[in-house]
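Usage

Read records sequentially. Each one opens with the input sequence:
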Amino acid sequence: MPVASVLVAVAVTAWIVAAVAALRLIRYRLPGRGAGWYAVRGYAFFSAGNFTPEGRPAHRVFLLAAMVFALALVALFASSLANLR
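and closes with the structure output:
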């Protein structure tokens, strides 16, 4: 299996895990903040202070999945540049 296929599979899987973790985090939103507030401010998912303490495990999963997704994209970009040579 080519490296690019593996990297795409890792990126897609990490994105799905991050999306599910973000949906789980909505259960732990701060009082007075609706789901729409989080939908408009997607960056809010990267700060643990925007959720109650009970949401810390889901927040860690979200951050880990987001990091794996970013690293997979960087590796995919680097491998595509290497293939141009």
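Summary fields computed downstream for this record:
- Helices lie at 3-25, 35-40, 56-84.
- The chain has a mean pLDDT of 94.
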